[in-house]
Amino acid sequence: MNPRERSFWGWGWADRFPDEEARRSLAEQAGAMLGTKPPDPAAPPRLEGIALPRPVVAPPPELAAFSGAGAAERIAHTWGKSYGDLVRGFAGDFSLAPDFVVRPRGEEELERTLAWCSRQGVAAIPFGGGTSVVSGVERPPRESRFAAAVSIDLGALDRVAEVDEVSRAARIQAGATGPALEAQLAGHGLTLRHYPQSFEFSTLGGWIATRAGGHFATLYTHIDDLVESVRMITPGGVWQSRRLPASGAGPSPDRLALGSEGILGVITEAWVRVQARPRWRASAGVFFAEHAAAVDAARAIAQAGLYPANCRLLDPVEARMNLVAGDGSSVLLLAFESADHALDGWIGHALAIASAHGGRCPDGPVLREDGAQAAAAQSWRAAFFAAPYLQTALVSLGVIADTFETACTWDRFARLHEAVGAAVREAAVRACGSEGILACRFTHVYPDGPAPYYTFVAPGRRGAELEQHAAIKRAASEALSSCGATITHHHAVGRLHRPWYDRERPAPFAQALRAAKSALDPAGILNPGVLID
Amino acid sequence: MNPRERSFWGWGWADRFPDEEARRSLAEQAGAMLGTKPPDPAAPPRLEGIALPRPVVAPPPELAAFSGAGAAERIAHTWGKSYGDLVRGFAGDFSLAPDFVVRPRGEEELERTLAWCSRQGVAAIPFGGGTSVVSGVERPPRESRFAAAVSIDLGALDRVAEVDEVSRAARIQAGATGPALEAQLAGHGLTLRHYPQSFEFSTLGGWIATRAGGHFATLYTHIDDLVESVRMITPGGVWQSRRLPASGAGPSPDRLALGSEGILGVITEAWVRVQARPRWRASAGVFFAEHAAAVDAARAIAQAGLYPANCRLLDPVEARMNLVAGDGSSVLLLAFESADHALDGWIGHALAIASAHGGRCPDGPVLREDGAQAAAAQSWRAAFFAAPYLQTALVSLGVIADTFETACTWDRFARLHEAVGAAVREAAVRACGSEGILACRFTHVYPDGPAPYYTFVAPGRRGAELEQHAAIKRAASEALSSCGATITHHHAVGRLHRPWYDRERPAPFAQALRAAKSALDPAGILNPGVLID
User: Fold this and answer.
1) Which of B235, B252, B276 is the last residue of a domain?
2) Does A354 share its domain with A394?
């Protein structure tokens, strides 16, 4: 049997791309939803038909044993998985293909690669799962000072190398994907319990480099909080922090590696905090007639010190799209998880707060003690991981479909939400002739603010989708920025978010980061153009 | 009435230094405890008798309006409050007095100060509460390239400037002390709930610069986690991060400011996360015959997802010193706090875990609902804040008394604890002719490790205490370092911990930090010698 193949242009496994009939059916639905005639399912690209630019450099002898310069390899490492990447991929545009791909089998080969790139002035682009949605894994433009570029694929470093069951920690190589590392931890009864939407394909190293957010709403869900120590190869030497539960010794080195997006070094492994697999679960869906009341309830729960695993507030559009409520209600999905104790008290307190804010929970809470998730949670997670496949299918129909996310303090949310809605609708009307659809949910809640996550869908015009999408994305980003929200809560910066990131960060911090990079990567080869120039 | 005066050489309020009779009584106790004859209470120094070095520079006209060069001012800003500082202060040694002290009343005056220092090559030492125990607020040696130095006292910036009751956040100036900011927050029913041992005198800016640890055992207790945004004046410009509950936009700027110990800039204010004042409290003391079983219980509770406010494990020596148990038991002090809900369930689960590890809780849990702390917690906090006064009194008797603290993963604790005990006892015998006393408690517990806090007491020889102490401190620090623990969990690095900090941090991180400093502080005037050279 051949190994299952990933789509060379779209999200995930190639065999999950819907067939002609399924796409026609999806087109009908999309047309009905957008009030347009059903879009036309164009034929997907064929690998054989892709024209690639000639490489400027070939693998040198010292890298040849672990390099590949074949078309399929170069194509698979050209783009990430942003909306624009999917559109370009679907159109057969792989004009930014790297010259070749290296796949180091250990740190020595990685060091050799960085040394060669530094000597030759070749851009070195770290590549984990290739799931960046912010142009974080593509080479710089050919007209930049980097005519040549190699993609450094960490996929060969995919092992859980060590498990400390006493401290509940594991040393895991950076190229391990979510399923790969969870399978290896499961043998110890442990889990990293980190589920970004890209979980199936993204890697530990990528999560650390981009400060990934897991799908739990509170406490230990960001990879930032799960990292105990980081090992990173820089052109200037090995960056290895000590395994520590906490330290007050100077600024945290790990926190500088976290979010460095490949510009300071290539992460090769990390000690991460793992957990016992949950046994008790308690969950409930709470319905609100008014969205503002639901927001207040989510805030009160976030500030109560209960720390739910989920506190996911769906606005009426999101609730309708997810078939959770079709009557204009907002829905708050609450869940608690524990490996240690039953959760009746926890969900009881949370429901009391929701009820005090006018929420109705007609079915009462669901309590389980067998380690299994409630059916609603299972179907939610399946839908969550399926969403990028749906986006890929919509791209093939010429429909514009994307998400963006942010975080802001509670006092600013109402104004932000209004501003984002107005900006996106206006931009969609201008670019697409239709308001399209905009849905919002909270993915995470903090005592001082929520992380709102927006999905927008609008009718595209074949060939014009990139500009249409860019206009909407720009309007949304301007709204976030002008309302004091962050340009990204967990999607990272890459090249896509640079203009707004540059405004958001303190100017002296940019100077400090630039200086740090010059010290560690004097040739400036690592992921040029990402985060800083 | 005169304002209450701080001791010019010892900890805290001058009027709390014990009189002759009280010191004789303390000397009796110390002698009995150490098995020596009662040490002799020497006379404390008199301010009038202090000989100060001549200043090299005087306040220039542009700084004169907010500068002071009087003896009392210079003396008060010479040292922090480490053991060595107390010994030097008691001996009347203020040889490292700054040339003068500036007390900016706003950011413009601070900027003017930094500009002048940069132009003149004068060292600029940020000074909050002056409670550093790691030589973090003293000028560099006169034989360094800085012949002149000014102390920058942030004390005039002490206001809670803004409160956002919806998001539970407050904008607070960096020079506000614990009591000052809590008094201002109390009017809103809010609290920062951050209680380092230096609480009475240390400041928000100092806490951020040194990554202070509060006295709660889990979750939001470190200032790191309470900071929403930081404002810092650097010679290279204003560093202002955006108020955000979370962000994934590049490495966190706040996390580089946190722990920067004054070498990158001077923090002037921060938005911090505040909380409703707790109403419910549940607490219990659990006794263990075996320390190892108590450690396992603390670990199990730390890994259970219960998040106690206190999970303070006292070893038998600590339990005896604190009059909690005199029979060789280890004692685990547990407490939960909430502003939202009763805590019966929480303490019940924690006690069940403790009991499963052989712990006995003869009195059962104490539950309160009136916002008041149980008597045991109140007396603990009073003793906690009184400990530095006791150290000062012991210094006046020539007794060596100090603390050090660390953090390590659970798997390493047993070996670390043994190594620290052996190292300290051996060094004490060699330096003091007596093993002295060594006590240990856990101040914080994390899912992956504890933060052990050690107190040691040994008989000193008048005039030799600094070397005797240094020998013990060095032995302890070597033990921490060689066992893979951190050189400091919340006391910071300063100058005192530099040798071990230099070994602990990743070498490329040191390069990055040095480069960042050069970019922001090209003249290198800010706190020279702290963290890096």
Assistant:
1) B276
2) no
Question: Dihedral, CA atoms, B264, B505, B441, B456, nearest 10 degrees?
Answer: -90
| Residue A29 CB partners (closer than 8 Å, separation 6+) | none
Residues A187 and A147 in one domain: no
Given this model, what pLDDT does residue A1 score?
Answer: 52
Q: pLDDT over 70 for what percent of chain A?
A: 99
User: In this structure, are residues A332 and A311 in contact, taking their beta carbons and an 8 Å threshold?
Assistant: yes
Q: Which amino acid is at A248?
A: G
**Cα–Cα distance, A55 to A492 (Å, whole number):** 29
- CB-based burial label for A327 (10 Å; 0-12, 13-18, 19+): exposed
The candidate with the shortest Cα–Cα distance to A325, out of A295, A363, A287, is A287
Per-residue pLDDT at A378:
75
Residue A484 CB neighbour total at 10 angstroms = 16
Say what the pLDDT of residue B384 is: 87
Q: What are phi and psi of A441, to 5 degrees?
A: -140, 155
Find the angle CA(A15)-CA(A21)-CA(A24) to the nearest 5 degrees: 115
Counted across chains A and B, CB pairs separated by less than 8 A come out at: 315
- Asked if A379 has any chain B CB less than 8 Å from its own CB, the reply is no
- Per CB-CB distance under 8 Å, the chain B contacts of A513 are 250-251, 516
Residue B373 burial (CB count, 10 A) = 18
Residue B51 domain-assigned (yes or no): yes
pTM (2 d.p.): 0.97
Neighbours of B235 (CB within 10 A): 21
Report the residue from A241, A251, A513 with minimal CB separation from B259.
A251
Number of residues that this document lists for chain A: 533
Give the model confidence (pLDDT) of A19-56 as tens digits: 999 999 999 999 999 999 999 899 999 999 999 999 99
> Are residues B461 and B343 located together in one domain of the fold?
no
Residue numbers of B between 321 and 360 with CB closer than 8 Å to A = 338-341, 345, 349, 353
| Domain boundary residue, one of A325, A344, A370 | A370
B410 inside domain: yes
The reported pLDDT for the residue numbered B1 is 52
- Rounded-to-integer distance, Cα A439 and Cα A462, Å: 24
Helices (H) and strands (E) in chain B, counts: 17, 18
Does B515 contact A513 at a Cβ distance shorter than 8 Å? no
Neighbouring-strand partners of residue A150: A100, A124
> ipTM for the complex?
0.97
Q: What is the CATH number of the domain that holds B112?
A: 3.30.43.10
Half-sphere exposure of A303 (CA within 13 A, CB side): 27
> Chain A window 135-194: which residues touch B at a Cβ cutoff of 8 Å?
164, 166-169
> B509 burial class (0-12, 13-18, 19+ CB within 10 angstroms)?
buried
Instruction: Summarize the confidence of residues A174-187 as an average pLDDT.
Output: 97
Pair (B265, B302) in one structural domain: no
CA A472 – CA A429 distance, rounded (Å)? 9
- Chain A hits for B305, CB-CB cut-off 8 Å, are 307, 338-341
Contacts of A301 (CB under 8 A, 6+ apart): A308, A311, A334, A350, A353, A354, A445
Closest partner CB to A444 (pick from B246, B501, B520):
B246
Owning domain of residue B268? 160-276
Q: How far apart are the first and last CA of chain A?
A: 46
Q: How many structural domains are present in chain A?
A: 4
Instruction: Kindly give, in sequence order, each residue whose CB lies less than 8 Å from that of residue B448, ignoring residues fewer than 6 positions away.
Output: A167, A168, A169, A228, A245, A273, B409, B410
Nearest CA-CA distance, residue B401 and chain A, Å: 22
Q: What is the CATH number of the domain that holds B290?
A: 3.30.70.3450
Q: Residue A207's pLDDT is what?
A: 98
Indicate whether A531 belongs to any domain: no
Q: What is the mean pLDDT of residues A196-207?
A: 97
- The H or E element containing residue B28 is helix B20-34
